[in-house]
Amino acid sequence: MRGRNSGHTKKACLVIWLGDSWGRPFVICITEQAVGVIQQSVTRSHTYTLPKNSILQTPDDEKRGLSFVIAGKLRFYKTYSDGKQHTVCILSEDGIFGEIETFSLGARGSYVETMEDSIVLFIPAEQFDPLLRKHSELSLLFLSELSKRLREQDQLVEKLVFQDLRGKVLYFLNRLSNKFSTEENGYRKIDIPLTHQELADMIGATREAVSLTLKELSNEGILLTSRRTIRIHTEKALNELA
Q: Domain Cyclic nucleotide-binding: where (predicted)?
């Protein structure tokens, strides 16, 4: 798997699903060295090349094993009886999800769909479970990073409960821009083609209310929006969120 931060310890992102009341997974990071141990220990795997809008998993078809996102982006979502979808996670390159004996990694009960052409490496559970038993430092690393993410989750819950809709939209877009963005003239372009409905699903609001809020933020120069593209002014957003 390819790392990113040249000159520093390279990391890959790992999603841990804890079944919390918000129905959202936690994302932790493991070192590229740990990923190397995983790669060296695996003797059997499958690589899938998938076009955009492919369904990789449904709630009734959950694979026992780990899947590594080699390229592309995946969306995890749940559906309800009224037909509405609720996006719970978006993974890009180096993301990991799946189900093994020790951890449930971010996919239980969800649909997994490609948002763009993607490549996914799947490792069966029987290949990975013995690895964690043999290399206990991997489990300890996961738990250590998870503790940090639990503290971050407290902040997320506070924002989503006590902020007004404007605050929720800004906070969530800022979080996305920290993970998936490119800098452009003081703005961060979120590198995910988000519709107003998808953003509304993420923060538990209606599409109409989110659309009005986005228009308001655009008029104030905090956001630049176009068809499925959102740019957020970093300084202005952070000043308001402070």
A: 48-149
Residues 85 and 172 in one domain: no
- Confidence band (pLDDT; 50, 70, 90) for 23? very low
Q: Which of 26, 29, 39, 37 is nearest to 8 (CA)?
A: 29
Domain region containing 148: 11-153
State the pTM of this model.
0.67
Same domain, 105 and 207: no
Residue 12 pLDDT grade (very low, low, confident, very high; cuts 50, 70, 90): low
Of 92, 123, 153, which marks where a domain is finished? 153
Q: What is the pLDDT of residue 43?
A: 67
Looking at per-residue confidence, does 7 or 74 come out higher? 74
Instruction: CATH number of the domain at 89, please.
Output: 2.60.120.10
Helical (H) or strand (E) element with 105:
strand 104-105
| Alpha carbon distance 176, 64 (integer Å) | 29
Map residue 164 onto helix, strand or coil: coil
Q: Assess if residue 2 is contained within a domain.
A: no
CB atoms within 10 A of CB 226: 8
C-alpha–C-alpha distance, residues 104 and 76, integer Å: 14
Measured over the CA atoms of residue 181, residue 182, residue 183 and residue 188, the dihedral's sign is negative
147 and 183 belong to one structural domain? no
